[in-house]
Design brief:
With 256 residues, the chain is an alpha/beta fold. It has one domain: Alpha-Beta Barrel (TIM Barrel), CATH 3.20.20. The chain contains nine helices and eight strands. The chain has an eight-stranded parallel beta sheet with strand order 1-2-3-4-5-6-7-8. Helix 3 packs parallel to helix 4 and helix 6 packs parallel to helix 7. The protein is globular and about 45 Å long. The structure holds zinc ion.
């Protein structure tokens, strides 16, 4: 199928093996993105992943990603990395990196479970600025990591903040359960990134959440664009729904 305009990948990372400078990393990502028809990619985290990042690590990663965006503002956008355990710093990074640009969302990984009250002022700022929060959500068979949020945790947070939009990353990894848990919480959309290209992932997300609430993401460089796109291209849904997932939902949710 062809869509009008390029594909938007809402969830990638500038992993160290892609390059050691913003220039090299951008060049590697663009080489593969061009092959796959991907027009824009959303950056978060940094070359090395820090489960409990210091203020210095947060600032370095945000600057690395801002530099990639400055090189190719038509191809990359970004989410401000913050650590809710360092709340004052988190709020100042939001002001500095979103209010003053170039980031258009907030990324939360595993520094703190998202049900914690420290998330409340962050969600209020996101609503004020009109930007979404990309929250890592996961369900590990062996039990989640310390500070890692489940889909149910995100539902609890999103219910406290109905004016904030949340992107539930990985649809919870266990996407059969994640899509069901997100279904009734209308201010959560889900991304399809990471994991293996399982049959049924996208169909299940669409069945429970509706095609307007599902966004394509890859988790590149940890995963390839091709395997992650296969989840959408191979899904038994209409071409109109695929176009929403590959492009138009991201434009709306991220105000691109
Ligand atoms: Zn990721």
């Amino acid at each position: 199928m062809s869509i009008s305009g390029g594909i938007i990948d809402c969830h990638i990372h500038p992993n160290a093996d892609l390059g050691s400078t913003p220039e090299e990393t951008a060049e590697t990502l663009l080489r593969y993105a061009d092959r796959m028809g991907i027009e824009m990619m959303g950056l978060s985290l940094g070359p090395i992943f820090h489960p409990q990042p210091t203020e210095e690590q947060i600032e370095a990663d945000n600057t690395f990603n801002a530099n990639i965006i400055a090189l190719h503002p038509d191809r990359f956008f970004g989410y401000a990395n913050i650590n809710p355990n360092r709340l004052y710093h988190a709020l100042s990074e939001i002001s500095e990196r979103i209010e003053n640009g170039p980031f258009i969302g907030i990324k939360l990984w595993i520094a703190m479970c998202c049900t914690h009250p420290n998330l409340d002022p962050i969600c209020e700022r996101a609503a004020e600025l009109g930007v979404p929060i990309l929250q890592h959500t996961f369900l590990r068979p062996e039990g989640n990591l310390a500070g890692e949020s489940s889909p149910a945790d995100l539902v609890e947070l999103a219910a406290r903040h109905p004016d904030t939009t949340f992107i539930g990353a990985h649809t919870g990894f266990n996407w059969e359960q994640g899509a069901r848990e997100f279904a009734d919480q209308a201010n959560i959309v889900a991304d399809t990134c990471g994991g293996d290209p399982d049959m049924g992932f996208v169909e299940t997300a669409v069945r429970w959440m509706g095609a307007d609430r599902v966004l394509y993401g890859s988790d590149a460089g940890g995963r390839s664009f091709a395997t992650q796109l296969a989840k959408v291209h191979g899904a038994d849904i209409s071409d109109a729904d695929k176009e929403k997932i590959l492009r138009t939902n991201a434009k709306r949710v991220l105000n691109l």
